[in-house]
Amino acid sequence: MQGTKDLTKGPIRRQLFNLAMPIMGTSFIQMAYSITDMIWVGRLGSEAVAAIGAVGILTWMTSSISLLNKVGSEVSVGQSIGAQNPENARTYAPHNVTISLLIACVWGMILFIFADQIISFYKLETSIASNASSYLRIISTAFPFYFLSMAFTGIYNASGQSKIPFLISGTGLIVNMILDPIFILGFGWGTTGAAMATWIAEGVVFSIFVYQLKKRHRLLGGFPFLTRLKGLYSKRIFILGIPVAMLNTFFAVINLFMGRTATTHGGHLGLMTLTAGGQLEAIAWNTSQGFSTALSTFVAQNFAAGQKNRLKGAYHTTLLMTSVFGFLCTILFVFFGNEIFSLIIPEKEAYEAGGIFLRIDGYSMIFMMIEITIQGLFYGTGRTIPPAIISITFNSVRVPLAIILSSMLGVEGVWWAISITSMAKGIVSFIWFRTLQKRIF
Hints:
Elements: H1 12-41, H2 46-82, H3 86-113, H4 115-119, H5 126-140, H6 143-158, H7 163-186, H8 190-216, H9 231-304, H10 309-342, H11 348-362, H12 365-380, H13 385-409, H14 412-440
Helix pairs in contact: 1-2, 1-7, 1-8, 1-9, 2-3, 2-5, 2-6, 2-9, 3-5, 3-6, 5-8, 6-8, 7-8, 9-10, 9-11, 9-12, 9-13, 10-11, 10-12, 11-14, 12-14, 13-14
């Protein structure tokens, strides 16, 4: 099939590595948008970081919703390729793109209209809340760019061409990094400048994807971006994508409540620590997510092709690599938390508070790696419900646990609630997988 790679033959480790590296790079680039904003806004003070951090939880929710079509593309298109059914692949691709555009428009409109009411949930100071609302309104108008780019990324990943989204996203990051200091400090636009830089960068990424697919690289032999939706294909996409999107969206909703609790016990510094610390935690998360997505794509093709003998080797290889990285992240966060956090915000009070968060959260890194790796294995076989159940269950426990622990330990109780539930998710994911192992392999 034109523009695709057959993952049902060849060396497992090399194929996984070649898939995972660009996917990880793309994930890091998406994370780097927020971190770049925070680094430059951090020069304006912790209050400015708290403002974009409040919106950061909402953009996390947005990226979680967009996973419906990213994962829907990766699995539906990937399994079609593995089953040697190019017509199905070309039908699933525009269905994912069309659905993602519809969702983006509705979700963006909701956040734009109700920005003030949504930001008021955090109970921030008036000036911080006003900056956050303005930032959110600007960002929300770029959601169609972002959602469509995520759908295109999923289609490329399913085709084994993960390097292309990486290069395109990298171009967007470069644009964002150039514009941030100009807009934030040079023009004196502050948080509004950060939002404008991100908006332009997302538009650039979308434009390059369109050019690449239409002019340079007719993936899957070419397919229309928009199509009249058919029930059979749409239903399959929603069955595959909704559990993943719900899992991650619910996680983001839980973080809204965690942000409120952190603000209650730590003021704007508490919210700043949670959101900025979450971006740093994403270093570990995005690494494991890159390998998980590569594993999902690899498993989707081989599972559909009946090559179950290759699945076990892929799983063990991925788990080994992510576990080693998880251990390294634990060492980094536990022993060098202050130094890492100070790269974002140079205020002593802010980076010391952030260092405490990273130390506590660092203990859970390897468990988080295990959870996300097993997610990829489940997704590739079409079993998207078990990871959703595990995540929703323990993320639900996170809020009451944070309330209980913060009443005893202050804002550090919130950090311990995050760490403990992350450990639990990793352990339960591994146990659940073991119960299904014989059916999968």
